[in-house]
Amino acid sequence: MRKQIVAGNWKMNNDLSQTEALITDLKAQEKTTNAEVMVAPTAVNLSQACNSVKGSNIEVIAQNMHFAENGAYTGEISADMLKSIGVNTVILGHSERREYFNETDEMLAKKVDAALAKGMRVIFCFGEELADRKAGNEETVVESQIKNALFHLEAAAFQNIVLAYEPVWAIGTGETASPEQAQDMHAFIRKTLADTYGTEVADNMSILYGGSVKPANAEEIFSKPDVDGGLIGGASLKAEDFFAIVNAF
Ligand code: PEP
């Protein structure tokens, strides 16, 4: 079912005590909402965060995982490891992973397969760079990112996938896609899904927007018919701002 989702990506921020303090603040700010609310602390604090969110409706999710089940992959984390501490959703394909850690569509397809095989839910990120948009190639780029990493899947697998359109030029830059740019791209993504998998898969897909979402612009972005929520970076580090965004629905 198509859900409203707001997920905070904390990236490489917050040590253990800061993680606990932010979760305490988030619990104090939490109000009843139809949206699913998620936060992604750094891997080393996931276990403690899972304990700390108890008593709230906040889900703790991971920022990344490896595709292998286990083995000689120094520094990596598997789906089973995440599940064993109560983490059942993972962000894959974030533009920072693609840019700084050379994650390719091919590698991401393997990560998606590994997560789904373990019954995890995937928030799959993609989006064009500024040069692509300036050249008018944003739809071609987005279409190839989605197709290369996801279109080998059966239709049923999409029940466990959430898409997050994040134009790279809007991430952490303060520059946001206009609500119209977000809507146009989300409609294109939904049509791309419908063309291959049919309207049921497309209509049930939650498509999040990410890129400098803040309390001041969330309501207008979320009001667009094909925008089902947001993946929030910087503004997710302050409980008040994060819940102002959640409450923008
Ligand atoms: C992100 O990193 O996914 C993101 C959207 O960051 P920001 O909100 O800071 O642009």
Give an overview of the whole structure:
By secondary structure, the protein is an alpha/beta fold. 42% of the residues lie in helices and 14% in strands. The protein contains eleven helices and eight strands. It has an eight-stranded parallel beta sheet. Strand 2 (36-40), helix 2 and strand 3 form a beta-alpha-beta unit. Helix 1 (16-29) crosses helix 11. The longest helix has 19 residues, at 179-197. The two termini are 17 Å apart. The mean pLDDT is 97. Bound molecules: phosphoenolpyruvate. Phosphoenolpyruvate binds at residues 9, 166, 171-172, 210-213, 231-235. The site of phosphoenolpyruvate has 13 residues, from strand 8.
Keywords:
alpha/beta; 8 strands; globular; binds phosphoenolpyruvate
Sketch the topology as an H/E string, one letter per element.
EHEHEHEHHEHHEHHEHEH
Strands of the biggest beta sheet: in what spatial order? 3-2-1-8-7-6-5-4
Q: Spans of 5+ residues with little confidence (pLDDT < 50)?
A: none
What's the story with the biggest beta sheet?
Answer: 8 strands, parallel
| Rg, alpha carbons | 17 Å
* Helix/strand/pairing category: alpha/beta
Shape by Cα distribution: globular
Distance N terminus to C terminus?
17 Å
Bound molecules: phosphoenolpyruvate
How many β-strand runs? 8
User: Considering DSSP H and I runs of 4 or more, what fraction of the residues is helical?
Assistant: 40-55%
Mean pLDDT: 97
How much strand?
5-15%
Number of helices: 11
Short description:
By secondary structure, this protein is an alpha/beta fold. 42% of the residues lie in helices and 14% in strands.
